[in-house]
Design goal:
Helix content of chain A: under 10%
Shape of chain B: rod-shaped
Largest interface: A-B, 29 and 24 residues
Structural class of chain A: mainly beta
CATH superfamily of chain A: Porin
Structural class of chain B: mainly alpha
Number of helices of chain B: 2
Radius of gyration of chain A: 22 Å
CATH class of chain A: Mainly Beta
Shape of chain A: globular
Radius of gyration of chain B: 18 Å
Largest sheet of chain A: 19 strands, mixed, barrel
Distance between the termini of chain A: 23 Å
Oligomer: heterodimer
Number of strands of chain B: 0
CATH architecture of chain A: Beta Barrel
Order of helices and strands of chain B: HH
Number of domains of chain A: 1
Number of helices of chain A: 5
Distance between the termini of chain B: 55 Å
Largest sheet of chain B: none
Helix content of chain B: over 70%
CATH topology of chain A: Porin
Number of domains of chain B: 1
Chain lengths: 447, 51
């Protein structure tokens, strides 16, 4: 489960039409939701509020194993979307990121976002400042600071990142003040993207999609080709630190299916870091309705050490009176066929994620208002039409580590349960059990 | 080249700036949020997520 500040940050990127997934640093984001999730390891409670459309605050209290807390504030120069967050947008889930496209943002707007989180009793401060410099570039400065002089256990950090997104490629320059590490990365996108743009621009975008009855052996996209329809991204990064006297390079190749085709969502990523000898291959896909799996093989060319990680994510659907509805993994939405009209209407207006943020969705979302709302005793700040009851994730590695997480809702709370087990340790197989409760207060914002 | 006295002053100034930024950042975020808000919420609603 992500915290509220991260949700607001995503909303800010969406409002400013910025796609963070276009960067090389997010090349593996889709599979990371299944293979690199972090379950709660303590008992913690957090409460968040959004008193205005451009301001959010959050406080959290961690009770076990030690008592600690934090207070966070976030201010944006742009009004953030008012739609109620769905469970899907509050949990890291496997989905296909949006097609890369050149941001066409108002050049006169220099939007910014400020964030500060003060941890107690340590007084550690996490801060973030991001500013849009131009329609295609933005600056991010993040830091961790301590009131006392930094120690090796508690180092102060500051990262300065300049990002540029030109649509067909995105680049990033980053500098870490603490260790003097500078890095530059680029990611180029090619494949079926241009064709998809043409299709989108040529076809009239309507509120509903026509569904025709198809034979099982029929080409689902109707363009004569078979197999997965996707595009490739090829990128690389170089980094060097004069202070640490180290340098390195890494390259990566990704194939992912197009978000709005009938192809099952699939992402393949290969990474190679020749200097350290690190090699990894990741495969993640949705194999059934709501069920996504991922596997990763990591290998070191010099030490011959290897680790295989397997993971799965199950989107548990809410029981509904209408069983015809189903979860569309491509759209990441609940869709309901209307046989008499041959159309699909979307039921979930809040599940529009960062991965799908085009005009068609904006139009489709307007149709949801006519849908019958599903009664739900959840928080007033959470979308009542959420089709997902919860997400169950599991991960295991060849090092006999097993991690489980459930993220869902309980009454008016968002709940996350986590378990980390290490079967290689017979004396203490259960490493940690955690429970996180999160309540989103609607504040005085009209919903 | 800076003299030792000036180096010491610069170091001292950097330390003071770090402390000021550390304790002043969160109030600054709240101030920016309050200035940008329209209509202005009550201060207690802005400060406390519990309100």
């Amino acid at each position: 489960m992500i915290n509220y500040a991260e949700y607001i940050l995503r909303s800010y990127f969406r409002a400013t039409e910025w796609n963070p997934d276009a960067q090389y640093s997010n090349l593996n984001r889709a599979s990371a939701a299944i293979l690199d999730f972090y379950p709660p390891q303590a008992l913690s409670v957090s409460l968040s509020s959004c008193p205005t459309q451009a301001f959010a605050s959050s406080c959290s209290l961690s009770i076990l194993p030690s008592l600690s807390g934090s207070l966070a504030y976030l201010a944006s120069s742009i009004d953030l979307p008012k739609d109620k967050p769905s469970l899907h947008s509050l949990v890291h889930t496997f989905n296909i990121s949006a097609l890369p496209k050149k941001p066409e943002y108002d050049p006169s707007r220099k939007d910014q976002l400020l964030y500060g989180q003060l941890h107690l009793p340590s007084s550690r401060l996490h801060s973030l400042y991001t500013r849009r410099l131009s329609p295609q570039s933005q600056l991010l400065i993040s830091s961790i600071s301590h009131p006392r002089p930094p120690t090796r256990e508690e180092p102060s950090e500051m990262y300065i990142t300049y990002q540029k997104d030109q649509g067909n490629y995105a680049s990033e320059l980053s500098y870490s003040v603490a260790d003097g590490m500078a890095s530059a990365s680029s990611l180029f996108h090619f494949g079926l993207i241009d064709k998809n743009y043409r299709e989108n621009s040529e076809s009239s975008i309507s509120d509903n999609k026509v569904v025709s009855s198809k034979r099982i052996d029929e080409d689902p996209d109707g363009d004569g080709s078979t197999g997965l329809k996707g595009h490739f991204s090829l990128g690389g990064e170089i980094y060097a630190s004069a202070q640490e006297k180290s340098a390195g390079v890494s390259t990566g190749l990704r194939f992912q299916t197009l978000p709005e085709t009938q192809s099952p969502p699939t992402v393949l990523v290969a990474l190679l870091s020749p200097i350290t000898g690190y090699l990894s291959g990741t495969y993640s896909a949705t194999i059934a309705k709501g069920l996504s799996v991922a596997s990763r093989f990591e290998f070191n060319l010099y030490s011959y050490e290897s680790v295989t990680t397997l993971g799965a994510e199950w989107a548990i659907p809410r029981s509904r009176p209408d069983e015809d509805e189903y979860f569309d993994e491509n759209l990441q939405e609940m869709v309901k066929p209307h046989p008499e009209e041959g159309t699909i209407s979307l039921l979930n207006q809040g599940a529009a994620s960062l991965a799908i943020q085009d005009v068609r969705h904006t139009n489709q979302n307007t149709t949801t208002k006519s849908s019958t709302p599903i009664p739900l005793s959840a928080s007033a700040a959470i979308n009542e039409n959420d089709p997902i009851q919860g997400y169950l994730k599991a991960r295991m590695t060849t090092e006999k580590s097993i991690t489980l997480q459930y993220a869902g809702r309980l009454k008016s709370m968002l709940v996350s349960l986590g378990l980390v087990a290490d079967l290689s340790n017979p004396h203490k197989p259960v490493q940690s059990i955690g429970l996180e409760l999160q309540y989103l207060s609607p504040g005085n914002e009209p919903n | 080249m800076l003299s030792d006295d000036n180096k010491e002053r610069v170091t001292k100034a950097v330390e003071v700036a770090k402390v000021a930024a550390h304790w002043g950042w969160v109030p600054f975020v709240i101030y920016v949020g309050f200035v940008n808000a329209n209509p202005k919420p009550s201060l207690i609603k802005l400060l406390s997520p519990l309100a």
